[in-house]
Amino acid sequence: MAQTYLMYIESITLEERQETQRLFEEYKFIYVDQKKFELSVQGNGVYMTVIPEGLPDGGIQSVDDCITVSQLGFKLYDILKTASSFKFAQVGYEADNHFEPDGLLKEASYYKDFDGLVISNSIADRESNYSDFERFNATHLWKPYHGEAFVQASKVNGKWQSEVVWSYAENDLDRKS
Fold first, then answer.
1. From the centroid of its chain, how far is CA 16?
2. What sign has the CA pseudo-torsion 68, 119, 163, 59?
3. DSSP bridge pairs for 40
4. Helix or strand run (H / E) with residue 121
5. What are the residue ranges of helices labelled H in 57-102?
6. Fewer CB within a 10 Å sphere, N or C end of the chain?
7. Contact in structure between 88 and 104 (CB atoms under 8 Å)
8. What's the rounded Cα separation, in Å, for the pair 20 and 25?
């Protein structure tokens, strides 16, 4: 099954999305361990995605994949820190499928634990479930991103189980630039 690793960003207005999109378009590539990933930036209305091209379609299949994808995520967040005009953002596999319109306010108890979720100050001001979020930049708060995990599924006694084989956060790797 094809999965796409991306940063999903939602803005309040078309102009805000265009401003954030221009910021990401200035970065043509991201390098991780001397491997070059071209950034594909796509916008539609108030929504946009930033996709580092060149990752395998099947998701994280190894510890090396986990490290590479995590480093890409950290670099995308570093770029996003320079943006001020967006409502929320998150990086991950199929991150654009995780959000419902107005869900950040209506279902805050569900979204508040999303690793790497960045929300505007205005959302945080309207919903107390985000009170433990940390400062991301002057206009946003976040649940800090800790990197990805390599998860394997197996069938045990006729039931599927998932096991985290290796986690970027649990191995306390230094962030590489």
1. 19
2. negative
3. 51
4. helix 121-126
5. 63-80
6. N
7. yes
8. 9
Q: What is the pTM of this model?
A: 0.88
Q: pLDDT 10s per residue in the chain (177 long)? A: 567 899 999 999 999 999 999 999 999 999 998 899 999 999 999 999 999 998 877 788 888 888 899 999 999 999 999 998 899 999 998 888 888 767 888 888 888 989 999 999 999 999 998 999 999 999 999 999 998 887 777 778 888 877 777 777 766 554 443
- Tell which phi-psi region holds residue 3, choosing left (phi > 0), alpha (psi between -120 and 50) or beta: beta
Indicate the pairing of strand 118-120 with strand 88-93.
antiparallel
Structure-token pair, residue 115: 């690793």
State both tokens at 70.
């995590």
Q: Closest Cα to residue 120, out of 103, 135, 100?
A: 135
What's the alpha-carbon Rg for the chain, to the nearest Å? 16
User: Residue for token digits 């930049």?
Assistant: 137
Q: 10: Cβ–Cβ under 8 A, 6 or more apart, which residues?
A: 17, 46, 47, 48, 86, 87, 88, 89, 99
Q: Measuring CA to CA, how many Å separate 8 from each of 76, 80, 104?
A: 11, 11, 14
SS3 64: helix
C-alpha–C-alpha distance, residues 114 and 116, integer Å? 6
